[in-house]
Structures are given as structure tokens and as C-alpha cells.
Design goal:
Elements lengths: L4 E6 L5 H10 L4 E4 L14 H7 L6 E4 L10 H6 L3 H4 L3 H4 L3 H15 L4 E5 L9 H10 L3 E7 L2 E4 L8
Parallel strand pairs: 1-4, 1-5, 2-3, 2-4
Antiparallel strand pairs: 5-6
């Protein structure tokens, strides 16, 4: 199974059309939004309702899967956090939950069925995002994980010997 790939991507400040073009470049047909809260004050083009109505026009499936996003952080944490990783403190505990495990199995089954899947969050750099932790678990399940940063920057997820 190691030749099969699951991608991750951060929407960052891109235009929605730029994200769609980037995903098409890597032949992604299914975008799974793993943000705990599928809204962005600064990038409303990636808010849930907009993505549900607009993203399929690019020939791709869009789904929000909150089980891979964890519990929404408190207002205090949201006000002080500078990155997704700061907002995701305690995420490792959530990864042990049945909710997370069901979400993970759903993603793996989609990919195993032949879908080209990308997991999306907000941060451009995967190492600043909880999707890096999700990638550890995906990789531990036998999948190759590639982080899409740009059309010329595709990063192989490093092996984490402590994830089992």
C-alpha cells in the first residue's frame, strides 16, 4: 500500500481558484476539510457554506470531517494562538478517541477505494498544523503522505518512529 498517497494541503491566504488549481495539478479529486471550525475570519472564501456550494464546480468533492479536527479550542486559546499547532494543544488526546478513529478509517477507506484524497486545514506549512499529527497516523497505517505547499513544493512526510 505504500505506493498509495494521501495528500495534505493548507488553504492559507490563497484564492479558492488557486487552491483548486493546485489540487488539480496533483490530481486530487476529493478534498477533506479537517478544521475543527470550518470558518476563517481572514479567508472567508474557505468558509463551509462557500466550499460546499463552490468547490464542486471545480470537479472535486468537498467534505468537512470535524472528527479529524478535534474539539474547538476555547475563546482564550483562539485569541492568543498564532498558528493551528498552538490552537491544537491537546490534540494527541483527541487522536485516541473513537471519533478520531472513525474519521481516520473513513479517510483511509476513501483513499483505498481509488479516490485521490487531500486533507485540508488552514496553515500553509504542514509542520505548523495539526494535519502533521494526522499525517503521522495515516503514515503509520501504511500510506505515503505528501504535503502540498505549491506546484513546485511537494514534501514527503518524514517517518515518525514513535507513532504506532
Amino acid at each position: 500500500m505504500s505506493s498509495q498517497i494521501i495528500y495534505t494541503v493548507g488553504h492559507s491566504t490563497r484564492l479558492r481558484s488557486e487552491l483548486a488549481s493546485l489540487l488539480k495539478h496533483y490530481n486530487v479529486d476529493t478534498l477533506i476539510d479537517i478544521r475543527a471550525i470550518p470558518y476563517s475570519r481572514y479567508n472567508p472564501q474557505f468558509n463551509l457554506e462557500t466550499m460546499i456550494t463552490e468547490f464542486p464546480k471545480n470537479g472535486m468533492t468537498y467534505e468537512h470531517l470535524s472528527s479529524l479536527g478535534g474539539e474547538p479550542p476555547s475563546r482564550e486559546v483562539m485569541a492568543q494562538a498564532k498558528s493551528c499547532s498552538e490552537r491544537s494543544r491537546g490534540f494527541a488526546t483527541h487522536m485516541e478517541s473513537e471519533d478520531f478513529k472513525r474519521g481516520l478509517q473513513y479517510v483511509l477507506s476513501l483513499a483505498a477505494s481509488g479516490k485521490s484524497v487531500a486533507l485540508m486545514c488552514g496553515e500553509l506549512r504542514p509542520e505548523h498544523c495539526h494535519r502533521f499529527q494526522v499525517a503521522d497516523v495515516v503514515q503509520a497505517n501504511g500510506w505515503d503522505v505528501q504535503h502540498i505547499v505549491s506546484e513546485t513544493d511537494l514534501r514527503h512526510h518524514p517517518a515518525n518512529l514513535f507513532t504506532y
